[in-house]
Design brief:
The chain has about 575 residues and is of the alpha/beta class. Helices cover about 25% and strands about 30% of the residues. It has 13 helices and 30 strands. The protein has a 9-stranded mixed sheet with strand order 2-1-10-9-11-12-13-14-15. Strands 6-5-3-4-7-8 form a 6-stranded mixed sheet. It has a 6-stranded antiparallel sheet with strand order 25-26-28-29-30-27. A hairpin with a 5-residue loop joins β7 (about 130-135) and β8 (about 140-150). α1 crosses α2 (about 60-70). The chain is elongated and about 95 Å long.
Amino acid sequence: MIDPVRLSECLAARFDDDHVVCLEPQQTWRDLLREVTGFCRQLPKGGDKGVLLAVESPYLFAAAFLACLQNEVPAVAVADLQPGTLTDLVPQLSAVVSDGDFSLADLPTLTPNRADEVMPFRTPSRSQSALFLYTSGSSGDRKLITKKLFQIEDELLTLERVWGAKTAHRLRLATVSHRHIYGLLFRLLWPLCAGAPFSNRNYFFWEELAAAAPTQGCVVVSSPTHLHHLGSPQATAILPANTLLFSSGGPLAEGAARQIAQNQGAAPIEVYGSTETGGVAWRQRRPSEPDPEWTPFPGVITHGDEGRLLLQSPFIESDERWYRTDDLAVFGTSGGFRLRGRCDRLVKIGEKRVSLNEVEQRLHKDAAFATVKCFAMGETRRRLVLVGALSEQGFAILLREGRRPLNQKVKTLLRDHLEPALIPKHFRWVRDLPTNSQGKTPQFMLETLFEHEAIDPTRGNRMPRFDGYHQSEDKHHFEAQVPSDLLYLDGHFPNAQVVAGVVQVTWVVRLIQALSGRPLDVATMEAIKFRGLLRPEQRFTMTLQEDKARGKWRFQLQGEAGLISSGRLCKRAE
């Protein structure tokens, strides 16, 4: 048996040279020490700037991290390597470590170079800055989170204290990244200090993970996204019955937890925490208790302030007596609590945290967007959606080219800053956001826009060609031309083609729908008049004006020769 060691004393531990550190491929303790030595000889020594660990291999990441501790330089871990994210980090970096062909600006790029011999290692100070992490803040800016060595070390000791007897020296397999604090602790540093082997591979499919799981049992570090598939009714018990499952990064659906318990014999152990706080509490659901309280980790004290969860924790370095989280909680009588959502604008999509403010702020830089509202929809399978109130310029794009170029604008503006999974893919474009009687836009009003298909005013050869659009006070003015291939001209007075009145009214309805983003339920029409003819290739203007007090839309089509048509559409009372 191998006794667990402290992270600060890890390199001086008396593990045997042939002690297995990781599998796929197998690496021994002496291999690791030589790897750390190679990194130590390349890394800068001391300084406030960090070293970015853009390392895909968990084993090499661990070696580079331990070398940073030796050289007293902070390691930098980011969940994604998006160009926009990295550009913001460059001034705070002194070098990059990569096990691929990654490079960044003019920074030196260091690569693995295993030494022939092992250098003597020192015991680093527990007070030194060990790790820089960056995470989305509620303001939209990325926040720097500094982890001192003592914070990481004490959390690892707590994990061993709570679950060491269950995990023992079993193999650690994972579906989560080692560049996130949860994955770094649970799948990498904890087994390293506990003397347990870990897999050097990230698994994406349960069948592949199951093939690597030993029959005597293992520890699987996973997330709700992956566990959702393991917990589907169609899933079978493909993992060894005594596999210990951990889940973190977001809420695990009750149904998935129940199905996993049925398939595997026990529900996953769910861990609640954040990059800022470290681990806070844990729970494990049972058939008799589908919504158990979260049990705080030893040393973590919780308190409530008007529903907001407050913490005192050995894993947090703060000048304040109580650390204020953005989570809402209700407290039980046994010292635990239940979570009841958040009070900020951070959401998690697939366990990755994204700031809704950041998404909106980046899009507001484009002149096509007057106001954008981004939010999450769905319970078990959450998705980011976006409602955009378009400027005159943006609405003109919608009229001429449809929704596609606006959708693409969003993806282009965000792709260098957010991972693909965090970029909204469901859109509704309107001229003005819906408002209630107080002039506010509650989220439920935005959600109703997704209850029907997206409205696109461009319908091939069924709509006019729009050359211009502008708004004056409460009137919307459209400049348009009748296309010669308009579908509705076929068979309609073939010797003297004109646009039928019903087609003109249809255009009015579709444009009103495009302005509001929702279907128009017309109860009656009033004062409908057709005064002139509208012919192929003829240019005309259309004016729409909403009378909100009476629930009516007034319209008028005007040509060079005068009025073509006019009238009022009366909406059905809601």
